[in-house]
Specification:
Elements (H helix, E strand, L loop, with lengths): L18 E4 L9 H7 L6 E6 L11 H12 L3 E7 L7 H15 L3 E5 L8 H15 L3 E5 L14 E8 H4 L16 E6 L6 H11 L3 E4 L22 H10 L4
Parallel strand pairs: 1-2, 1-8, 2-3, 3-4, 4-5, 5-6, 6-7, 7-8
């Protein structure tokens, strides 16, 4: 059994709404079928991140405009990718990228990737979030920590990515105790290398740990020659089963 949060399970845990957040698909020009699949009616999507070129790019991209428009017309929230570079990215660059995402692609919010999680960096991240909401009003902000940050970040964003990593690590992961003070729709888990036969187990871990937005893929972060790969850019081999299980829920 995985080592999970020590908080006792309550009846409400079985009714947690679970949805899919897509963190980083390949460009729509090279993966048109993947983006078309996301627009299929009934897919339980929370949001999809649009990452044109490590951000919005330098000019409007017609393929991304079409993909984002199709999703938005289908009621799917589209988030722009903003790279905080662990807190060292110049503020002016972030403002510029945010404007481009909003002006060109009319995004509904932002994933702040490589977001720091320590207490010292919190004022800087809070400044970025304040800027985004000044530009776009009620915009949806997701902080891409990849691990549990200090609790203060939860007071400033809509969602936190508190796990990003491999299935081998996820099976033995544990939620920080302070997360129990917040509803499941505040937390996201992205897990790669999940075998088809372990999808139900992975979903149960997400529910037990209180993560309402998830993305599980059987792709890994290694290439055949031992190099590094982006496991999120290709649709999972078990996509249909994953979508089906998220859509129907997992019995406890």
């Amino acid at each position: 059994m995985p080592h999970l949060t020590t908080a006792p399970e309550s009846p409400a845990d079985t009714a947690v709404r679970t949805a899919i957040g897509v963190p980083d698909y390949a460009h729509p020009l090279t993966a048109p079928a993947q983006w078309a699949e996301l627009a299929r009616p009934g897919t339980p999507l929370d949001w999809v991140v649009l990452n044109v070129a490590a951000g919005p790019g330098t000019r409007p991209d017609p393929h991304c405009l079409e993909a984002a428009g199709r999703l938005r017309d289908g009621g799917v929230r589209v988030l722009g990718h903003l790279d905080l570079a662990h807190g060292i990215r110049p503020f002016a660059d972030l403002v510029s990228d945010a404007h481009r995402h909003l002006d060109w692609y009319r995004v509904d919010g932002f994933l702040l990737e490589r977001c720091p999680g320590d207490r010292a960096a919190l004022p800087g991240v809070r400044r970025v979030i304040t800027m985004l909401r000044a530009l776009a009003g009620d915009t949806h902000v997701v902080l891409g920590h990849g691990e549990h940050p200090c609790p203060g970040y939860a007071e400033n964003a809509d969602q936190l990515v508190t796990f990003r990593g491999s299935w081998a690590d996820y099976r033995w992961s544990q939620a920080a105790e302070w997360t129990a003070d917040h509803p499941a729709d505040r937390f996201c888990h992205f897990v790669h290398g999940v075998p088809r036969g372990h999808l139900e187990e992975a979903l149960r871990i997400a529910r037990w740990q209180g993560a309402g937005t998830i993305y599980f893929t059987d792709r890994t972060d290694r290439t055949e020659r031992g190099g590094r790969a982006n496991p999120w850019e290709t649709v999972p081999g078990h996509w249909d089963e994953f979508v089906s299980r998220v859509g129907t829920g997992v019995s406890e």
